[in-house]
Design brief:
Elements lengths: L6 E5 L10 H9 L4 E2 L14 H11 L6 E7 L5 H8 L3 E9 L6 E4 L6 H7 L15 H7 L3 H9 L6 H5 L1 E4 L8 E5 L5 H9 L4 E3 L6 H4 L1 H16 L12
Parallel strand pairs: 1-2, 1-3, 3-4, 4-7, 7-8
Antiparallel strand pairs: 5-6
Helix pairs in contact: 1-10, 2-3
Length: about 240
């Protein structure tokens, strides 16, 4: 990457909160790179569609100047194209970490059709869902978040989203892939997204773990993201060798 060093903008899934990226952001900051984690926990509080609130929250939190790398987790990946469009030419790369891969254009829904009956069954009479960890049994949550203190931090900033968040249609501006993109994943069920990213010619790498592995091992995930951006997407140029006398 030439010129000013890019800042990392970590987009967490609105199903959870900033605590799911905060430890990785700290790893990135220790490397000397600016990193911010916009708070997307209130994007479901207004009327649908909710994607404009995501765009507004990311724009408000992004550094005021300089190039940006968007790093999205889970369903936050589906907002990357509209966020990139809003931030314009400042976005120099997009990294999808255990994330949905947006289509090349058109419209996309946050929840795929087979998943909607599960969500409708969870929603109360007001169509408001319980916090994300309440969707699963204790054993499954413990597999995602094996440390009790870690689990408390994640649970403390989870929102309760409306069903309309998952049924909203998010625009996908054509040409959004005109910057380098990469995919980092932990395992199932994102194998299909990893294949899609590979088919598009993106660098693809894996840090084995469960869906919230960036909380479990932020050092490994942070190091991989830095490697992907600094080596795969923007390889450093070798200095020219001195000419013989």
């Amino acid at each position: 990457m030439t010129g000013m060093q890019a800042s990392f903008v970590f987009m967490h899934s609105p199903c959870v909160g900033p605590s799911t990226w905060a430890p990785v952001a700290e790893v990135v900051r220790r490397s000397g790179t600016t990193a911010v984690v916009p708070d997307l926990t209130r994007v479901g509080s207004g009327p649908a569609p909710h994607w404009p609130a995501v765009v507004a929250a990311v724009r408000a939190a992004a550094p005021a100047d300089g190039p940006l790398v968007l790093v999205a987790h889970s369903n936050a990946g589906l907002f990357v194209p509209v966020v990139k469009e809003a931030l314009g030419g400042r976005v120099v790369a997009c990294v999808f970490a255990e994330s949905r891969v947006p289509p090349r254009g058109g419209l996309t829904e946050i929840a795929e059709e087979p998943f909607l009956p599960f969500l409708r069954a969870l929603a109360g009479p007001d169509d408001i869902l319980p916090p994300w960890t309440g969707w699963w049994g204790d054993e499954e949550v413990a597999a995602f978040l094996p440390d009790a203190a870690m689990r408390r931090r994640v649970e403390a900033d989870q929102p309760r989203l409306p069903l309309s968040y998952f049924t909203q249609r998010v625009p996908v501006p054509a040409g959004w892939e005109n910057v380098p993109c990469a995919f980092v994943w932990y395992g199932e069920p994102y194998d299909g997204d990893a294949r899609e990213a590979k088919d598009r010619g993106w660098p693809v790498s894996r840090v084995p773990g469960r869906h919230l592995h960036q909380v479990v091992d932020p050092e490994a995930v942070g190091a991989e993201l830095l490697e992907v951006v600094n080596s795969s997407l923007f390889p450093r140029r070798r200095a020219p060798e001195a000419s013989p006398m």
